[in-house]
Design goal:
2 domains, 2-enoyl-CoA Hydratase, Chain A, domain 1, two-stranded antiparallel ribbon, 12 strands, eight-stranded mixed beta sheet, alpha/beta, 9 helices
């Protein structure tokens, strides 16, 4: 009727739905809020891509600069920094690729592997150790030296013992010759909460290390024998690498760590030194060229996205054990 105001509005494109002014405003506010949220997500993603691109460009520039100076006599440097493993840090493929390039360089007078690592997986550590041994045999006149920075423990030391000589700072942390497997149990908490675990398996031991079930003595015995076997492989590698310089004690292979000065007394290292002092005083060359693996932009981006996912999958499958 004329003279009366309709208090409702019809939503454009939908003649069957009536909305009040306040409902329209709420819907518009929600839509605007969602748009702002996605804009922020896009900005952060774009910023992350830009940062990764800049890092990649800087690494490429550094490698180009290193390639120019590699035409003169130099010490070839390979950095091993962080945990050793495919999904948790630096992989054997990356380190071994760098070592091969460092040894193959005609003007490299020695190869220095600088280690700063808490350890890693047994397989990856052993693969680097084996490649170092092979390269030493292939290039007998080119010494392979390890310089320990802050930390060289467990899998990191497994790698280090394959070198001709090991150098460290008196305050460096060295050792941890042992193997571990981590787990946890919620059985007591579940009983208090009245929660029942229901798991079906095809295979008696398929639910190995299930944290929601009581530990099985037979399975624990089996896992301990497996750890002991890997530990013995570690011990054998240390004895083979260090030879007569090693001073065996009752606690040398128990997983303890020592300072650099204590490690020298035990024969775990040969002498004190830094990268610069080893290059200058041991090799006799001041110039240092970095041959460390530099991932490309796409690889760096995919790794930053995939590392946490891969590590999570490994933990879910009960594979989170190693030389640490």
């Amino acid at each position: 009727m004329f003279g009366k105001k309709d208090k409702t509005n019809v939503l454009p494109g939908d003649g069957s739905s009536n909305y009040s002014d306040s409902q329209i405003l709420r819907d518009l506010a929600k839509a605007y809020s969602r748009e702002l949220k996605w804009r922020r997500i896009f900005k952060f993603a774009l910023l992350g891509l830009v940062i990764l691109y800049v890092i990649s460009a800087m690494r490429i520039a550094a490698s180009v600069g290193g390639a120019v100076s590699s035409s003169a006599p130099h010490v070839a440097l390979v950095e091993l920094s962080g945990p050793i493993g495919i999904s948790i840090g630096v992989s054997a493929d990356q380190i071994n690729q760098s070592l091969r390039k460092a040894f193959a360089a005609k003007q490299s007078k020695a190869v220095v592997l600088r280690v700063d690592s808490p350890g890693g997986t047994p397989v990856q550590s052993a693969e680097i150790n084996a490649e170092m041994t092979r390269l030493r045999a292939e290039y007998p006149k080119k010494p392979l030296l390890v310089v320990i920075n802050e930390l060289c423990a467990s899998g990191g030391y497994y790698v280090a013992v394959a070198a001709d000589s090991i150098y460290a700072n008196p305050a460096s942390i060295v050792g941890s010759i042992g193997v571990r497997m981590d787990g946890f149990g919620f059985v007591g908490a579940m009983e208090k909460l009245g929660v029942e675990r229901r798991t079906l398996t095809a295979g008696t031991n398929k639910a190995l290390l299930d944290p929601f079930m009581p530990s099985n003595p037979g399975q624990v015995t089996h896992l301990q024998s497996m750890l002991d076997d890997v530990h013995q492989q570690f011990i054998d590698a240390v004895k083979q690498g260090r030879g007569d310089s090693l001073s065996e004690t009752a606690d040398l292979f128990t997983g303890l760590v020592w300072s650099g000065s204590q490690a020298k007394e035990l024969g775990l290292i040969d002498d004190f030194g830094s990268l610069d002092s080893v290059a200058r005083d041991v090799v006799g060359v001041d110039a240092i060229v970095d041959y460390s693996f530099q991932p490309g932009f796409l690889e760096e981006f995919s790794r930053s996205f995939g590392v946490s996912v891969g590590a999570g999958i490994a933990q879910k499958m009960g594979l989170d054990f190693g030389l640490r």
